[in-house]
Write a structure and sequence with these properties.
Layout: E1 7-9, H1 14-27, E2 31-34, E3 50-53, E4 60-64, E5 67-71, H2 76-85, E6 88-89, H3 101-105, H4 114-117, E7 124-131, E8 136-140, H5 145-151, E9 159-167, E10 169-170, E11 174-182, H6 185-197, E12 203-212, E13 215-226, H7 234-238, E14 249-254, H8 255-259, H9 263-272, E15 282-287, H10 288-300, H11 304-307, E16 312-319, E17 335-342, H12 350-366, E18 370-371, H13 381-388, H14 392-402
Parallel strand pairs: 1-3, 2-3
Antiparallel strand pairs: 4-5, 5-9, 6-10, 7-8, 7-9, 11-13, 11-14, 12-13, 12-16, 15-17, 15-18, 16-17
């Protein structure tokens, strides 16, 4: 999607954001905070309004054992570097570290460690926020709790996050990264569930890639972190798993290189041009019981060509007991599966993928799914009411309280209610 704002603000301070919000409110303009531009469907655009480029407010203000205080425009890669210098690391990171702290905390933020630690929004202890009234305030689980619970995963509707206090855990020297190949979807899903249920390793994710002739291959990626000279026990980690014998791959990396493992891939995609193509992604969380049938349906609508040269499908389990952020919706049941169709489209063809996303979203709802709303997916006000379900009254109240003039735009090409 493309939209032309009336102005782009490069703030030099939090006070600049406060002034911009007050200016927009007085003139009936929309204002959107933009991080690193990783959104896929207009989430960081404001037609005729104001876009605030948060990357000018990037700073790691403090790192102490157990926590870091960072400005919202800071990239996660910068957080990792500063934390590791102090022997620490964030407990949950997304696969790609060149996104901003404020951006992922406005949505959720999931990765291969979420089966142990939940979303990134579950690992923030305090926030500094400019609300839709232009007020600068701090919030946490014990101070201004309503704002804290509204802004985390709130899609930018209730406030602009300007700083965050993040949990940190001890870092490690190295990581052993395992890639296990499967030819059967059901076995692939079952083994992932077993790994998570038994808490065998630090990182668990699954990928589905085209195998040619309309078929697919499945790969579990698991990892265990360790300090020298105590590597993990391969036999114990892989015990009882039913991957294709002899096809497993094992690699030892520094812990830092594992966390930033997408950096080489990004360079290749930029060089090939695919990085700059449209990315009409669809991200969903499904109940464990319906994941297999939905994934089979979704794969039946895809080909290697429609997925794109740089595309893939992610499927991995998330115990819902760790997902505590109120506005990050989760399906019913003890375990949900993240299912992410990460298409890369040729320029000018993305509308076909967006229409396909909408059709699959209807099937996903029937399977008990919820959206993880980083999607290229048209959403009507009724869709948003359905998405939030019993939380919808909380969303309405938060909007009236923290953004009474409707300054802050929710994106997605539509308004959320």
């Amino acid at each position: 999607m493309h939209a032309r704002p009336a102005a782009v603000l490069l703030p030099a301070s939090t006070a600049d954001i406060q002034e911009a919000v007050s200016f927009a409110a007085a003139r009936g303009l929309r204002l959107v905070a933009r991080g690193a531009g990783h959104s896929t469907y207009g989430q960081s655009q404001a037609a005729g309004g104001i876009v605030v480029d948060m990357t000018t407010l990037a700073a790691v203000r403090e790192v102490e054992p157990g926590h870091a205080v960072v400005a919202a425009g800071t990239l996660w890669s910068q957080v990792v570097d500063a934390a590791r210098a102090a022997g620490q690391t964030p407990p949950v990171l997304t696969d790609y570290l060149a996104t901003t702290v404020g951006g992922t905390l406005s949505v959720g933020g999931f990765g291969g460690a979420s089966h142990r630690h939940g979303a990134q929004t579950d690992n923030v202890t305090a926030l500094e926020v400019v609300t839709g009234t232009g007020e600068l305030t701090t919030c946490s689980a014990t101070e201004n709790r309503d704002l804290f619970d509204s802004v985390r995963g709130g899609l930018g509707r209730f406030g602009v996050i300007t700083a965050a206090t993040l949990r940190l855990t001890p870092a490690f020297d190295n990581t052993r990264w395992y890639k296990l190949w499967y030819d059967d979807l059901a076995v692939f899903l079952t083994d992932q569930s077993r790994l998570v249920a038994e808490a065998r390793c630090a990182h668990v994710q699954g990928r589905i890639v085209p195998a040619g002739n309309g078929s697919w291959r499945y790969r579990i990626e698991l990892a265990e972190h360790y300090d020298r000279p105590h590597p993990p026990d391969d036999h114990e980690l892989l015990r009882g798993l039913r991957h294709t014998p002899g096809a497993e791959e094992t690699e030892d990396l520094t812990h830092a290189d594992f966390l930033d493992r997408m950096a080489d891939g990004e360079r290749r995609l930029r060089a090939a041009g695919d990085w700059f193509h449209p990315h009409p992604w669809l991200n969903l969380m499904l109940p464990s019981a319906t994941t297999e049938s939905f994934v089979r349906r979704a794969l039946g609508t895809l080909t290697g060509e429609s997925l794109g040269r740089a595309g893939l499908v992610l499927v991995y389990p998330l115990p819902t007991r760790h997902l505590a952020t109120p506005l990050v919706r989760r399906p019913a049941g003890a375990t949900a599966f993240m299912v992410a169709l990460l298409r890369t489209a040729r320029p000018g063809t993305q509308h076909t993928s967006i229409a396909a996303n909408r059709a699959l979203y209807g099937h996903a709802l029937a399977a008990g799914a919820v959206a993880y709303p980083t999607n290229a997916l048209p959403m009507s006000p009724e869709d948003w009411r359905r998405h939030y379900g019993p939380r919808w009254p909380d969303v309405v109240r938060a909007g009236r309280r923290f953004d009474p003039r409707g300054v802050l735009a929710p994106g997605h090409g539509t308004q959320a209610g």
